[in-house]
Amino acid sequence: MERDIPQTIVEDLPSPRLDPARADFADAVLAGFARKPRSLPCRFFYDARGSALFEEITQLPEYYPTRAETALLETYGGEIAERMGDARVLVEFGSGSSRKTSLLLSTLPRISVYVPIDVAGESLAEAADWLSERHDGLAIRPLVADFTKTRTLPIVARRSRKLGFFSGSTIGNLTHAEAQAFLVNAAYLLGRGASFLVGVDLKKDPAILIPAYNDSGGVTAAFNLNLLERINRELNGDIDLDRFAHDAVYDGIQGRIEMHLVSLASQTVRVLDRAFRFAKGERIHTENSHKYSVEEFQALASAAGWAPAHAWTDADRLFSLHLLRLD
Ligand code: AVJ
Q1: Minimal CA–CA distance to 212: which of 317, 320, 62, 319?
Q2: Sheet strand arrangement including 38-39
Q3: pLDDT tens digits for 195-211?
């Protein structure tokens, strides 16, 4: 029997296939540049160069969060261990570099399984190697995944009591609604009896906040501009980096630092063969970094079903570590 064979229109075939990570980046950039106001998701900061620049940021005199959180873990490690119950499995969200994790693990001898979850597969493997050298007998089961969407844990992690760890105030990158949805999903993932240790940057004087996101050495500027370099490298872009500038502002109403890239001229840029016009002064919103008072974060956690058990803060009230529980 004769059949109609659909005609293939050669011109409509997709252009040479991008690998999935690059396709995801391409979709985000094309959509973000098509929208007004323009924006790009901050998760794309962390390619190899961006991750290296972020490590540099954590060493800057102006960038207090990493130092303040590390000091809290060092000072209160024993207390955290006492309060968190008998978890055997540590699940880390957006793990990145694992120095803080090692600090935490050294105060928690009962943890036998470690599940780091991160989208960056290479840095995940590196961090796993680094940690396994320092923590004998620890089973490490990395999950390459978007931690806001993870719905299942590896089998070895399923039956035991869990401790979640979400450090660095990465939760601040999410809007309040997204943060609440994340905490609901984390409750589902970690299950009954779980504890959750969350590092959250505190609201404070913008005179301290703004330099932390606009350092005098220009490292944060390079970190922000790397997003455009990444577009040039991976998406065949022709963006002139000298025609964009880094900016960081504090929005006191929303309680967040916003990072932007500002077009210094009226210009057209090309990305994957598409043209985008930028007016002089037009902005690309690249990151939110929400700040919370202790009470605000506890209210958010409660609304997501978690019981706030304790919060530690430093003497200068720079940063907070929250212990949450799920009964
Ligand atoms: C790693 C997301 C917590 O928001 O402070 C640092 C990222 N951006 N400087 C933050 C960042 C600019 C950082 N987080």
Answers
A1: 62
A2: 38-39, 283-290, 256-263, 244-251
A3: 999 999 999 999 999 99
Residue 1 has pLDDT above 50, yes or no: no
Nearest CA owner, ligand 1 atom 4: 289
Question: Quick one: which atom of ligand 1 is closest to the CA of 54?
Answer: 6
**237-273 pLDDT per residue, tens:** 999 999 999 999 999 999 999 999 999 999 999 999 9
In whole angstroms, what is the distance from residue 128 CA to residue 139 CA? 10
| Per-residue model confidence as pLDDT tens digits over 36-85 | 999 999 999 988 899 899 999 999 999 999 999 999 999 999 999 999 88
Angstrom distance (rounded) from CA 90 to CA 246: 37
Best mutation site among 55, 93, 148, 173 for ligand 1 pocket (most ligand atoms within 8 Å of CB): 173
DSSP string, 269-316: EEETTEEEEE-TT-EEEEEEEE-B-HHHHHHHHHHTTPEEEEEEE-TT
CA of 235 to the centre of ligand 1 (A): 24
Q: Average pLDDT of 1-19? A: 52
Decide: helix, strand or coil at residue 154.
coil
Contact 289, 201 (CB under 8 A): yes
The mean pLDDT of 141-161, rounded to a whole number, is 92
